[in-house]
Every structure is written in structure tokens, then in C-alpha cells.
Fold each of these.
Amino acid sequence: MTAAEGVLAIMWVGLTAYALFGGADFGAGFWELLAGGTERGRAPRRLIEHSIGPVWEANHVWLIFVLVVLWTSFPPAFAAIASTLYIPLTLAALGMIARGSAFAFRHSVDQPALQQLFGASFAFSSVATPFFLGTIAGAVASGRVPPGIATGDVISSWLNPTSVLGGVIAVGVCAFLAGVYLCADAQRGDDTTLVEYFRVRALVSAVVVGAVALAGIAVLRVDAAALFDGLISRGLPLIIASAAAGIGAIVSLARRRFGMARVAAALAVTAVIWGWALAQFPYLLQPQLTIAAAAAPAATLRAMLISLVVGAALLVPSLIFLFTLFQRAEASTAITPSGRTARPPRPGPRR
Amino acid sequence: MDALGMGGSGGMFTLALPPDLLHARMQMALSLGWHIVVACFGVAFPPMALFAEWRAHRAQDQDMNALARTWAKALGVLFAVGAVSGTILSFEMGMLWPGLMARFGQIYGFPFTLEGFAFFIEAIFVGVYLYGWDRLPPRLHLLSGFPMIAAGVAGAFFVVAANGWMNTPTGFEIRDGQVMNVDPWAGLLNPSTAAQSVHMILAAIMVTGFCVASVYAVGMLRAGTSGPSRYHRLGLLVPLTVAAITAPIQIVVGDWIANMVAAHQPAKLAALEALYPSGTHVPLSFGGIYLDGKLVGAIQIPDGLSLLIHHDPGGFVPGLDRVPAQLRPPVNLTHLSYDLMVAIGFALLALAAWLGWAWWRHRDIPRSAWFLRAVALSGAAAVTALEAGWTATEVGRQPWIVYQILLTRDAVSTAPGLRIGFYLVLAVYIVLTVMTVYVLRRLARVPEATIAPQELETTP
Ligand code: HDD
Ligand code: HEM
Ligand code: HEM
């Protein structure tokens, strides 16, 4: 493996983490959108709020991580992608702004009307943002981003069958992941109604995403021949693994083995993302720009590898601390500075 | 690497001005100018909240406890909008300035990678801090605040290093139009990094301190004759003390950074001072309007600039006459922004001195309502100085995006329709501003009563 491939692989780990963690946060917003009126949707909303509250900002930074690694290590690829795809990028960025700020604001106001407004804005942008990110993935995967500055078509590069497929699958995957994760969270909170609520939703989304992915094969065959060829050759083992893991997730959900379902769901998504990578190897931008041609000079790659290793040594323990802290059932006898005791146990957040 | 992988179009130098250059610049300025204000709180609010929490814990102080929780809550909101407004910035680097990223991402991008790690750690520990309030023992909770502070400061350092590189680029050579001998570490530690990052971190402390103090000053003015509560007095005194201690240091650092600019960016220095003729015995000028090489209506201190830079009244300072006309920055905007920053810097120093004097004399804040009025304004003044300083820095670098290496107009994206993006972003930022101000005002008005800072409505 060359240094460039090593850095790219680390970036891809970051992208996978963004899909698994950030994606699930988007998916939680998807379920909020469908949760119904204030009264009916109260319980699921509360669980969602509780689950993503402490972690969504950290999960969001995976995206920043991917961007900075891309633009430092593969500058021409970043310039080409960002300039040709500036429209979906702008829309995704605005979606993130609406989503993050609405989520934070909602905690801080007490008028129901405003809470509803922020809630709606959070939920709606939670669906729109992954859609646009998915169209970007579709654009890159189908070879519609040529190298150079804004040399691709700024519209048809991301409004095309593969991109739309990418967008729909992204939304579906987010919803699926969130549904599965939330089952386990609800279970930890001993709320059987909520467990069933999310179990049904996770199952339905699993089936829908699976069906869309199957139909997508036909779309890719016509619209993204190079990607298709890669997927059915080099990428095939991973695509099969993904399908198997997806079925495994469905079975675990059916048998109420939520811990297992979580792992299987994550594996299914991971396998697709890496299958895509294998399918278009060694190209960063099909069919012209290879990884080697796009890579920054050796000195930069070396500096990147050093910082990625040192950074990971700081980051991984911190992330583990964050997740275990909020995953553990309440250590709730802590005394606050005011001398009050913390509240009795609530449903713990996921992950 | 082939000619920077730039393929056919978008080559090294275009001749005509790209149609949307102005909109790209305005979009960048808007989103940076917005982000920087909330980013200041991300850097300097955590230590203040942590200090209040520590006092609350040590002295069982109810008022400090209420302050700590209110501040933590405001921090939660500001951090969230800071994170999302930072995200669009990183998109914009490529959407608007692909010519910069394609060529120099290999050097300029590197500090952003380190920044990415710093913000990652900050985001993790902000989560721990806000939501762990009742889950962690108090001592551990306090400890969990330290990584948050360290990461915030480190992040500011790295990102300002990236900006410093645009001002004083190092760590590469250009041969036959190719970028060679890249050394990202040298780029990170360019000549501007030290002075600029220290100046910026101090500015973040001043902005946060004066802004928070001004909220409580307004509260005390409203309280009128009934007299301010201890809660309000502490809310004013803690941040104001921090800001007041920082104010004089900032002026010393301001002198350092000005000397750095003089040494490395003569064209910018000339624009900051609106100086046309090069020469010795150059005066220091405040205000005035620059017209065709002359500064009209300025207040001048004879030999001032020569003295400041060379510690010698006869020191030679190059002026704009040394810079080809088409490579001169917009002088008036640069000069007036700079003077505004310096003027506010001294005004805030005076405010700090007033506080220090009163404290020295009778261990109390000055009793005059005028003092409270001045504090009430100081937050807005510090933000204005911050924006003015950045305007001077960025506009003073024009027409270069990378000083003397790459012109801004050669870095801008050639994609059609950029201006529509600008109007969209403008509209979203207007709404975002209104909402943020509204939410923060509500937080300021309702003293913290809930249990965990972020969990208002989940109380059973
Ligand atoms: C609270 C804010 C604040 C205050 C009171 C001051 N500054 Fe400042 N200044 C900034 C906030 C700032 C800034 C916004 O943070 C800048 C923009 C870029 C940077 O690194 O810092 C800046 C830039 C900046 C620059 C340009 C640096 C460059 O282009 O690389 C100079 C020469 C000074 N400052 C000098 C001063 C002096 C002499 C001050 C004394 C009164 C002063 N500043 C007060
Ligand atoms: C570390 C931080 C920053 C970086 C890396 C940065 C980077 C950039 C870049 C790439 C541009 C576009 C190219 C150019 O016009 O030269 C720009 C322009 C600009 N930035 Fe910054 N910037 C930073 C901080 C800020 C802040 C905080 C402000 C606050 C107001 C600001 C104000 C501006 C303005 C006004 C312009 C337009 C200048 C002009 O075109 O006349 N910048 N900046
Ligand atoms: C002097 C300039 C800057 C300072 C001091 C600064 C500081 C900060 C801080 C402290 C945060 C954490 C969030 C918060 O506390 O509000 C943040 C977030 C962020 N900033 Fe900036 N920033 C600056 C300029 C920039 C520039 C120029 C960029 C990108 C081009 C940028 C990109 C980001 C990103 C992507 C985040 C989000 C990280 C997260 O999700 O936590 N910042 N910034």
C-alpha cells in the first residue's frame, strides 16, 4: 500500500464513521418528521432527543475530518468535487446549519410554538441533508466529476439517476440505522411500547432500503457502467456481505436481538461503503484522476500520517469515554453543586 | 502529479475578472465574519464557565452555580451554531476558492487537519461537559472541562496559522509554475502564526468577557433603584475582570503584530497606515480619507510610524508608491478598519483602567451608572474591533489570496451562478442571526433553574 492509499483508507474509515454515527443522527430526525403531532409523537421525540443530544456534535465532526484529509492529501480531487458540485454542497451545508441550530435552539426556548418550529426545521433538514450528500456520492461514483475547476456540469452532475439513487439510499440508510439503534436505546429504558414502535420502523426501512438497492442495480448498470463493472467484480464479495448482513439485521430485529441487529446493520452499511471504494479503485475521480495522480507530495502525506496517528491516539480514547459515559445506565446519585440529587433513571442514550 | 491535476480549463492565470468574484468574496466574508464571533465564545467561554463551576463547588456558592449553569447553556447554543457555521466554511474553501485548494491544499490544508482534530476533541468534551453535569462526580466533571479548553485554544491556533500562511506563505518553492519542495510543517509555522494566533486568542477572550459582562450590566441598569443582586454583580465582575486583564496585553501584542506586518507585508502596512510616499520620518496617522495618494483630514503624530517600527525617528518605511497600482489593496477600507480596531482597543483599555482604579480604591466596581453604560456597550465594541481587525487583515492582503503568490481572482471558482449561492447564504444567515440573538436573550433573561443545562423539558 502506498502512503497515498494509506491516507485514503484512513479517510474512508472516517467516511464510514460519519455514515454510521452521523447518519444515524440524521435518521433520528427522519423518524421525528414522521412521529406525528405533538401529543402522539412525544415519547419517540423524547427518546430521540435524549439519544442524540450528547453525541451529535462529535458525530458531525467526522465529516469535517473527511474534508480536511481530502483537501490536504488529494487537493485537485477536492477542488474538482467542491467546485463542480457546489450546488448540492451549498444545500447540504444550509441543511446542516438549519438542523444543528434548530436542535440546539429547541432546548433553550419554552414556547410550544417555537419548539414546534425548531422541531420541524430539525426534522425536515435531517432528511434533506443526507439526500444532498447522497447525490454528491452518486456524482462521484458515476464519474460525473472531471478533474479541473468546475469542469463538470453543475446541474446534471448531481441531478441524474445514480445521484438520485444515492440520495434516496442515503436517506433510507440513515433511517434504518437510526431505527435499529433506537430499538436498543428504548429497550435500555425499559419502554416496551417504544421498543415495538421503533422495531416496526426499523424492519420496514430495512426492507425498503433493500428493495431500493436491488432496483438500484439496474440503474447503475445503465447509468454508471464503470461503477457497475467494479461492483460486480472486485466489489462483489463486499456487496454480498452487505446483503447478508442486511438480512442478518432483519432476522435479529424479528427475534428482538437488538444488540445483534445493531452490529449487523452497521456491517451492512460498512460493506457497501467499502465495496464502492473497491469498485472504483484505483481512481479517485473516474475515469481520469487516479489516487496516485491526485496525491499531495510525499512530505505532506508523511505529515498527514503522523498527525493522523497522533490524532487518533487522542481521539479514540475520548470517543470511547463519551460513548461509554452516556451508554452506561445512570450513575445517578451524583450531587450537583447546588446539593440537589440528579433525577431518577431515564432512558439512556444510544451507543 | 501532473500540472496540479488541473486538467484543461482553470489554468494558472486567467485574464478577465471572473463574473462572480465579488459575490464569492462577500460570501466568504459574511460566513467568516459570522463564524468568528461565535468561535470566540467557543475558545473563551469554557474557561469562564469552568471557573464559575469551580467556585460554586469550592465555596458552595449558589450564585456561582446559577451562573455556571446559565453560561454552560449559552455555551451549548453557541457551540452548536459555531460548529455548523464552521462546516459551511470548510465547504466554501473548495466551492469558492478551488484554485487555492487545488494548488496549495497540500500546505495550506495541513493546519486545518490539525484543527479538525482539535475541534473533534472539543466537540466530544463539550458533549461530556454539558450532558455529564449530573452523571459525573463534580471533580471529574470539572476535569472534563480541561480538554475542552485546551482543544478550543489549539483549534484557534491552527486555524489562524492557516490564515497566517495566506499572509506570509512559507514551506514551498515555485519552479516553472509548479509547487515544489513542499514542507507542511514550515507552512504551519510561518512568520505570522505566532503573533496572529496570540492576538486572536486574546481577542476571543476580550470578546467573550466584554460581551458576557455587558449582558449583566444591562441587567443591573434595569434593576435600577432596587439595587443589583449578587448574581448580577458576579456575572458582571468575573468576565469583566478577565477581559480587563487582557486589554493591556492585547495592545502590546498589537504592537508585535504590527511589526510583524511591517517586516513581511510592506504593502499591507502601507495600506493600514494609508501611506503613499515612502520615506524616513514617517508620521503615524489616525483617520482621514485617502484620495489619489494623499491622506486628507488625518490626525498625525510626527515620526510616529518610523518610531514604532524602527524605534528611530529616521526609520525608513516603504509606502504604496512602491507597489504597482494594480497590486494595491483598497486603502480606505483597510486604513479605517485598522484605526477603528486600534481606537476601540484603547477605549477598552480605559474601561479596564476605570475598573482597576475603583477596585484598588474601594474593592468594588465603580458606582457610577456611566460605568455600567460603558460596560453595556463594551461587548459590541469588542466585536466591532474583532471584525475591523479581520477586515484590515483580509482586505489589506488584496488583491492576493496568497500574498505575492496567487491572486484572489485566479483562485475563485469559475462555476456559473455562484451569486445565487451568495443570496441564499445571506438569507439563511439573516434568519440564523435573528434566531440566535433571540434564543440567547431568552437565556439571559431566565436565570438557570433546570437541572442539567441541556435538558429542559425531560424532567419527569
Ligand atoms: C478585540 C479585538 C482586538 C483589539 C482590541 C485589537 N485587535 Fe488587532 N486584530 C484583531 C483584534 C483586535 C483580530 C480581529 O483578531 C485580528 C485580525 C487578524 C488577527 O490575527 O487578529 C487583528 C489584526 C491586527 C493587525 C493585522 C495583522 C495582519 O494583517 O496580519 C494589526 C497590525 C493589529 N491587529 C494591531 C492592533 C493594535 C496595534 C491594537 C491596539 C490597540 C489592536 N490590534 C487591538
Ligand atoms: C483563520 C481564519 C481565516 C481564513 C483561513 C480566511 C480565509 C479567507 C479566504 C480564503 C478568503 C478569500 C480570498 C481573499 O479574498 O483573499 C478570505 C476573504 C475574506 N475574509 Fe478571511 N479568512 C479567515 C478569517 C476571517 C475572518 C474572521 C474575517 C472576519 C470578518 C474575514 C474576513 C474576510 C473578508 C472581509 C474577506 C474578503 C476580502 C476581499 O476580498 O476584499 N476573514 N478569507
Ligand atoms: C480565526 C478564525 C477561527 C477561529 C478562532 C475558529 C474557532 C472555532 C471554534 C472554537 C470552533 C468550535 C465551535 C465553537 O466553539 O463555536 C470552530 C468550529 C469550526 N470551525 Fe472555526 N474558527 C476560525 C475560522 C475557521 C475557518 C477559516 C474555518 C474553515 C475554513 C473554520 C472551520 C470550522 C469548522 C469546520 C468547525 C466545526 C467543527 C465542529 O463541528 O466542531 N473555522 N471554529
Note: Confidence is low (pLDDT under 50) at residues 329-351 of chain A.
Amino acid sequence: MSVRLIALILCLLAGGAHAQGFAGLGTTAEGFAIPQRGTPLTFPQDHGAHPEYRIEWWYLTATLTGADGRDYGVQWTLFRSALAPHDGSGWETPQLWMGHAALTTPDAHYLDERLARGGIGQAGVTAQPFHAFIDNWQMQGQPGTGISDLTLRASGPGFAYDLTLTAEGPLVLHGDQGYSVKSAAGQASHYYSQPAYTVRGTLTLPEGAVAVTGQGWLDREWSSQPLAGDQTGWDWFSLSFDSGARMMGFGLRDGGPGYTSATWIGTDGSATALPDGALKLTPLETSAVAGRDVPTRWRVELPARGLDVTVSALNPQTWMATSFPYWEGPVDIAGSHDGRGYLEMTGY
Amino acid sequence: MTCVALAALLSHWRRQPLQFLTLVIGLALATGLWSAVQAINAEARASYAQAAAQLGRADHASLSAPSGWIARDAYVALRRAGWKLSPVLEGRTRLGDVAATVVGVDFLSYPMPPEADAGSPEITPERIFTAPGLLFAPPDLAERLADMPNLPPVVSTGELPPGIVMTDIALAERLLDRAGQIDRLLVLDNQPMNLRPLAELAPDLDLTPPERDTDTARLTDSFHLNLTAFGLLSFAVGLFIVHGTIGLAFQQRRAMFRTMRALGVSLRRLTWLLMAELGILALVSGALGLVLGYLVAAALLPDVAATLRGLYGAPVTGSLTLRPLWVASGLGIAVIGAAIAGAQGVWQLRAMPILAGAGQRAWARLSARRARVQALAGLALLAAGGGAVALFDGLVAGFALLAGLMLGTALILPALLDLVLALIQRGARAPVTQWIWADMRAQLPGLSLALMALLLALATNIGVGTMVSSFRLTFTGWLDQRLASELYVTARNDEQGAELHRWLEDRADAVLPIRGVDASIAGQTGEVFGMRVHETYRQNWPLIAAAPQVWERLEAGDGVLVNEQLARREALWPGAQVAIGADWHPDVIGVYSDYGNPVGQVVVGLDTLLARFDGVPYRQFGVRIAPERVPALIAAIRADFDLPASAVIDQAGIKARSLGVFEKTFVVTGALNVLTLGVAAFAILTSLLTLWGMRLPQLAPVWALGLTRARLARLELLRSVMLAGLTALAALPLGLLLAWVLLAVINVKAFGWRLPMYLFPGDWLILFALALLAGALAAALPARRLRRTPPADLLKVFANER
Amino acid sequence: MLLEIQSLTKRYPGSDSARPVLSDVSLSLAAGDTLALTGESGSGKSTLLHLVGALDGFDSGEIRLDGHALSTLADRERAVLRRDVVALVFQQFNLIPSLSVAQNLSFHARLAGREDRGWIAQLTERLGLDGFGARYPEQLSGGQQQRVAIGRALAMRPRLLLADEPSGNLDETTSDTVMALMLDLVAQSGAALFLVTHSERIAALAGRRAHLSNGRIA
């Protein structure tokens, strides 16, 4: 099979880490809409797709505990990538979709990937009622409730899950009212989250089904050019502390000092954006994963909030061996705050 | 000194250019014959495998709709149910003024997209997925399409089979004018867990397993088996010829070797020199042979390609590429053949003292012993081949039998001929006839290798010819069975089927519903078909075993027919009972041949089928109608029913086309046959020419005793023709045995069905005549030389006694 | 001594072992000597010559040729002796039919790596082969062929010339001429000569004589 052609397609869809920055996000945005500061996000419309933007995702992660006492992690992601800034029907549409689903246990990692064309009903997202789907994977809301009550399903070789999510707090808008700057040069995206789902449901593993409960976090982001050309990857953390507070933080790597950004979410759901440099990320330990060294233990510091924790992977081998590979998996938090969260690392 | 010695060795060839020529030509012919067959085989196989792989048939099961096409929504529904499938839309169309098969795929899911050739412009997803799109085509087609106006850009790729244009399915829909349609869905690897079965989700779609198990592959394999058998046999013939020519080259120079050793060239050095000489000769002649083989293959390949393409729908390029393996195997046979032959020569060289007497008598004694040893080895080979089949199962044992049979008989031939000649000699009274027979026996050792080659060539001719002709007759019969009706119509669904049936009843001579279900037969999944017994079947259905009143019993529901594969596999012959489904054990009342079908099949009366099974599809019909009324009926069906073109098939046309293409196979086989025979005749000529030098001293005394040179020449001719004739007589049973092994052993082991053997005595007579002609032609040159030999040369024999 | 034969015994495998072809034969030959060995047909004289020529092996005893004990030599070393030290003239000439007369004449010398064109020209002239150089053996008479064989042997300047019935295939007149020529040339080249013949007349031309009877020196 022609790896090169696949790679080319996916380079555009998402992959190809190097010259153009990770995931092709550093390309210019001719004809595509550009995120503008001050554009208010409106719901439920913005839960749906934005075909005039080049790239968009619905990104759900959940840290779970099974009736068997073991810790689990679940990922459900739908990416949209547009070849041209418009929608269309039939095979001719320029909208391409990619789904990633994963189920992580302390000693195993199951994943699958789906690709689809828009326009034929194989994949898409509608805002009212909320419904995001690709093949038989879906994230579905109840009419009139936006994304507050979701059912989440996916299956792949050797795994399946079926979960119910209930939001326990408000939506969180990152950056300046959802306008999230991604580099000192000003590249930005529209970015909001629902960080406070309670989750219950069933995981199916080769050894059988297990009932689980836990917490979920949904990220929504769309843009046409979110990365600067010299940025090669990112380390992204979503942390839920036992205190009820939460933090989203990421560091973008480049040849120089990089760029960091964080949002502190109080127990009441109120969000505070913290500027570049407020968050400090230090790799403590790397693991050999899929033939490369990936940091799987981090020191995360946010002095402004008295945060100084160690973040460790539940299973260091949660490599997403998809068309463009990356690391994504559940983490444990210990130190000034305890809790659980998710870590995503790209460009290694 | 090495140079001096080598120059002396080579000087022989300068003085005997004809011998040198025969040696080189002999080696080249053997190599050429072998490599031609190899080239055809390799090319056809490679093309076929590539095509199967490229079109996703080889590695993936696929779903298709009996009605013709699958709606895009049906595909999306299966996707939404979790099944990983990849859609393919395929059709013939004109691109500019080029007719091509357009294959539309979804490049996001297609498992093996072609890779563009080096030097192509960059392929971006935008170019593939958005207008105007891209066309991928094999290089020659790409070149032609590139010049067409109003076509999307064309990308050349060596990974696509000839005549195929691959493109995104969006563009294919427009090119083929088939919006929303899909022809088949490839079932991809790594399906998720907990899926609902396809049979539940899409009961109206047929699942076809990967092509390696389908009819096409089986039949193509069968054709390749013919070529493989031919390749093996030509290898054997070639080996004998190489062996013969090299052996003679040693024999001719034996005296020279001895002199050189006496003058201080060590045995080791002589051995190395000879090996080097042979190696160079083998490589040079082998290279010539490769050129020859290439030319032969290039000339024959278009026919082979047409055969495979037309008969089996397998696209094969008509052009030849040089494959390293092919070159290696061609040079290999030249070098290996020369090495085997040379090793024997060197062995004899070592075994002989430097100064044995002039050696005619010693040589004769040695060859008598050798003939005995050879005959014993031949018997051992025959026994080993037989033993292999008796002890082991499988194709390899079949080929072992084949090899043992051919080589064994060839080795026995000299002893056999000697025995026959001795018997005749005993009966001869007149002195001249006594001398003739005795002299023929004396000549045998020198000619035996050439005669063995002739034997193999003749036997191969008879064997392969019989096999191919039998296959052809059988195939014709099979087509008659399968395509007995003039027209085949497939409805979209049962309702339309019922309507179509009523409609056809009024317009055709007879309508034969073809209705069947998949069921468990003798524990394995197979097909059960219901048959409305009709004169068509009584006349055409080729039963290879039947109980009395088989048709009456079938109609009455008292017994079933099974196909040959099932019968052989499960030993279900008339009188046995076959388990169908859970609790039905009807009697087997007949067995029919069913070439190309890998699965077991049972035919029952239609009423029985309907009584036993629910939900039997009611969609396919065979229509009997006068052939001249077929076109009008097709037009009428198309006018009254919404059916895709592929749902109405005029089988008479297909049959004629299939048979026409099959005839092309004979062109190939025939050409190879003539070549093999020609090579064998050449081997005899070589041997006779070589023996010529030794013949003079034997002929001179007879000449002195009063036989004219002209009479001696006639006798030479007669001797050669007689030996060829005797060999041909021996070749006939061997060839028939060979055909039997191919049809009844190898075919059964390879495919599970046995081809009946038909005899073609007319062909044998022609072949016998050809063998005599070969013998006469081969002896013509030496005989002519004998007639013109000046008496002085004959006298010299006495003056210069050796 | 150029050649020393000591208590040589030779049996042919398969033949009557009680009666060896050669038994307890001892002989010696100094450089430049000529020795004629006579005997009846089957007396073993050709066999003795072949053994001396390192063409065949023996059962017991020893042959020392130019200081080499033949029983200890491998085939390759014996071939070197044949190439460089001894030359043979056979009853059946044993010319190489595909080489011209000139090529045959120089063949052994070139194998030994000491082709002396002047010497070969002299030999050619003395042997009366001038003008025959481009011909092939089959185009020559028997006497001419034997002269080529003698020329080939002497051209490489052997220390020892072995001649086995060199005139056996020739008529008496030719034979005498060829023999006289050969002895003359042997003397000129300084080689020793070991001559096997059944002819008393020819044997008389040699410096020393020995007679072989039933495998023993009489």
C-alpha cells in the first residue's frame, strides 16, 4: 500500500509534524476564516461545525475507575479538516473527518482510527440537537440541553465503550472570552471547554465488560492557523484536582523558550486566564515509547495559584499509533494538589 | 602455461566450427525453450497477481449486489453500523477517444492506493479530492490520456494493471454517469468488536471471499499449471540436450586430453581449464538462449495475455519485462546443465588412465556398463515416483510422479532400444542386414542422449496436447452446462423476479428459475440449488456418475446431485447419503463436473428446495429462446424493466468469445510443441554429426567390401529414421501416461476435480510422421557428406590405422 | 644419476597377481646416456617406460628421476616432471589434431615455458618439416607426423627423452631415417634417451642395451 499517499492525505488532515509545525497547523489560511479577538461565542450554534475554518475538533477525555477497582482512561476525538472553506454534499465535499478512540488500562492501550468524507452522512456534527459522529462512533446530546447531557460510544478491535456524561458546571471560555492565543506572533484559535462531567457507563475489554464511574473533560477548538511556523509540538494538560478546582495548561515547543498558557478553573467554575510564562512545565522522566523518548513524568508549577505537582502517566505506553502518531493518556497528580487528569504530547 | 593449454583446448573448436556451432546452438536452444516458458509464466503470474492486488480482490472479501449496484446510502448505513468498508465504483467508459476501465475509490479508506511513478508532480489531497481531480493510470495509458483535451490531470503509476484508470470516487461518478452508485464494498481488516453480522445488516448483498479462492483464480491456476508442466518438461528436455552436447564435446577431445596430460598438464589444471571453458560457453550460449527465449515469449505473450484476459477476466500485460529471476533461471539451466554434463566428463577423465589404449573397445565396454546403470537408475526413478504418490498426498507427490516417470523412462530408453535391436538382429540372416543392426546397436551409446531428448519431446507433445485438448472438450461441455440457456436475467428483488417470470413465460420457449441457498453440506458451507428438470438439463448436464433414472428421481424429490469436488472430498457417489442442514440426509443419485467452483454444491428438485428452505431468492432466470430472437427479447426486457446492463446477459455471445479465446491457448501450446520437437531434432543432428568422425573407420571396411557410398548414405538415413521411429513408439505410451498423470493425478491433487481424458489418434500419427521427419532431416547432412566423401578419405582409414 | 630404477614391481589390478607385469626391475641412466630396452610383445617394456614417464603408479620399489622419488609425488608434481624434465615420443604420435604443425612443434616447450625459436627453427629444418608449419597433422603422412612428435619432444630440451616404439608405425626405410635423425638430435641436445623397441636393428644404435623378458631384466 502506498504509505506516501496516505501520509500526504493525512498531512493535510492533521499529520506531518516537522517543516510546517505539528499537524500542519502552521500553514497559511488562504480563503479560510481567521479567529478574531472579540468574536463572542454563541451556544448552542458553536457546538456544531465551522466549515469555513480549516481545522476543528471535539476532544473528550475521561478518567475512570472500574467496579474492579482499577483505573481507566477513555479518549473520544473527532477532527474536522477542510480542503476548502465551504461545505458540500456527496463525495465532492471538501470536508474530511478523522476520529480517534482509545481505552487505556494500567497495562494495556486499545485504539482505533476512522476516516470519512463529509457530505455523504458518514461523519459530521450538528449543533441542535448536538450530535457528533463518524461511522458508529457518536457523541450525542439531548434536545435543548446543548452538551450538558451526552451519551458517548465507540468501538474498535478489542474494545468498546458506552458512557453517559452529565455536566456539573458551566462552560469555560479560554483566553480572552474564548479567543486563545497560541504564540507570541499572535496565532490563535477559538477555544472553550466543558471540564466538569461526571461519567458512568460500561467499558468492554477482551476479558469482558466492566462498569465504571469518573470524570470527563470536553475541549472544543477551531481555527485556521493556530500554530506559528516554527512551533513543533505541544504538551497539553487537563487536570482535575480533588479540591474541585481544575486547570487547563499547555506549552508549545519551538527552538526558543516556547509559549505557555493556562486557565485556572475555580470550584465554582469561574475561569481565569494566565499569561505566557505563568505556567512552568518540566519533564522529569522519559519512557521509551514506539521507538522514541517521551516524557511521561512532569513537574507542573503554577506559582500564582500555589500549584507544584508531579504528573505521572497511568500507563506510559499510551501511544496513539494513528495516521499521525502522538501520546495521549490518563495521568495521576500528586504534590501540592492531588487528583487525576489527561496529558497529550505531540511532535515527539 | 595456462594460456597455452587453454589455447590448445579451444583450438579444437576453431578446427571444428560446426561442432562448436551445434554446441552453442544446443545450449542456447535449451536455455531459450526453458526461459520462454518461464517468461510467459512469470509475466502472466506477475501481471495477474498485481491486478488482483490492485483491484483489492486478492486480500479482501467484498460485498456486491446481485441486482447490479449498491446505493451510496446503503454503504453509509453499513459504515454507521461500524463495519469498515471501502467503496469501489467500476465501469468501462471512453476518456477522450481512449476506452478504459475507470475504477473509482475513496482514497481515505482504499487499502492500496497506487503510488505515483518517480518524477510525477506532487500529489496533494486538494488535487485528489477537489475538482478537477486526478486520474491515476499505467504509464502507457497515462501517456495517451495526457494528450486528451478536457480530462483532469493524469498521474502515471506502474502499480496499476493495463487498461485501468483509478480515480477518486467523486470523479468516477461523473465519468461513469453513475451518481450515488457503488459496485462493491471491500471488507477491510481490523474490524471493531461486537458488530452485527453483515448477513443481518445487508441480507441483499453477496459476500465474496478474497479472490484467491474464487472461480477465476482456480481456472487461472489451472491454465498456469499447464504452463508450469510445460516448463518442467522443457527443463528436462533442455537438460538432456545440454548434457548431450557437452558430453559429446568431451568425448571428441578425449585423445587430446590424454596427450596434454602426458605432456605435463596436471589433471587438476585440466579440470579447471575445462570447467572455465564450459562456464564461459554456458554463459555465452545461455545469454544467446535468453535472447531467443525472450523473442519467443514476446511473440507468444500477447496470445497468453488475451487468453487470461478474455477467458478469466484477469488483466495481463501483453508486453514483457525482463525479470531478474527469469534471467537467473535461464542462465541457471545453461550453467547447471553444463555443470552436470561437465562433471560427468571430468569424472570419466579422472577414471581413465592417461594412456589407455586407443579406447574404442574400452569405451564401448564402459558405455555398455553405463547403459545398464542408467537403466537401473531409470527403474529406480520410476519406482520412486510411484512410491511418492502411494506414500504421500498432495501436489508435490504428483509432480514427483511426473518427474520420475519422465526421467526414468528416458534413462531406460537406451537399454530398451538395445534390447529391441538385439532381438531384430537375431532374426536377421543376410550379412548386410546383420551388419546394419549390429552397427545401429554400436551407434546407440553416442545417440542415446539425443534419443532421450526426442523421447521427452515427443512424450511432452502427446501428453500436453492430450491434456489441453481434453481440457478444451471438457471446458466446452462445462460451458454448455453452465450456459445452456440463451439468456440470463437477474431481477432486483423477489417481487420483480415474480413479475419478470410471468412476463418471460409469455415470450420465451422456457423459463428456468435458478434458485439456491447457502447451506451446510456434509459439515461445510456449500450451495443448494433447485432445478426444474427440463430437456435443457437432460441434454446438457454433464453427469460423470449417475444412478438409473436420475432425472425422474430428481424431479420426484427422491435424491440429489452433487458436484465432483464434493463427491471426491467426501466420497459421495451414487448410493451414498449426503447430510444437508441439520436433519436431511437425501440419497446421492448423480455426480456432475463443476470446474472452477471451490465449494461443494448440491442440486435438488426445485419443489424439494422450496419445501425444505425458507426465503429462497426468486431473482435469477435462464431463458430458452430461439437464438435469433435474443436481441429483441433483451431490448424488450430493458424497455419494460428497470434493470442494470449487467443483469441481462446474452450467454451465447459470451460462450463464443470464451471459446474463441480458449483457442488462442492452443496457438501457444502448439508453438511450444513445435519448438520442443525442433530442439530434439537438432539434438539428433548434433549427435550424428559428432559421430560422423568415428563413423568413417566403421564404414570404410564395409565400403571396401562392396557397398557403394550412395547405399551407405541411404542406410545411414534409414538407421536414423528407424531409431526415431522406435523412439516415437516408446514415446506414445509415455505421453499418454503423462497426460493421465496430469489429468487424473495432478489436477485432482491441485483442484479437486478430475478432467476426463480423450484420445486423439490423428494427432499421434502426425507426431509420428514428424518424428520420422526429424530423424531423416538430422541424418540428411551426414548422409550427404558420406555420399560425397572422396574414396581417398576412406582409404586413409586403412593407411593411417589408429 | 638422472634416472635410477630400484627393485621395481608393477601389477595391473584384476590381472593375475601371481605374475606381475614387472618384477624386481633395476636400471639406471646417466645424463646424456642412450639406452635401448628390447623385449617381446607383452614383456612389460612399454609399461616400464610409462612408469619412468610418471604416467602411472607402481606397487613397490622406487624410481628416482632427476632426484625425485616418483612414489612420493602427487599427480600435480608428476605433471610438473612430465612438463619440465621428460619428453615422450609415442608409437601413435599423439599430436593434437586441432593444432597446426608449427603449434604442435612448440606446444610442449611453451607448456614448459621455454620456447627457443632458434632451436625450433633448427629442429624444423633438420626434421625436413620446412613448409609444413601451417598444415594440420591429418594432412601429413605417418613418417612426417612422427617427425613432428620427435620435434615436439626435443623442442622443450628435455633432460630425458622417452621413446616408445617410435618407428613402430613406419615402414623400414622411413623408420631408419627417422631413428637416425632422432639419435643425432638427441646427441646434439644433450638429452638422455630411453628407447623401447622390439627391433634389434634399432636397439643396436643405442649406447647401452637391456632386455626385458617376462617382466624381468634378463
Note: Chain A has one domain: 3-345.
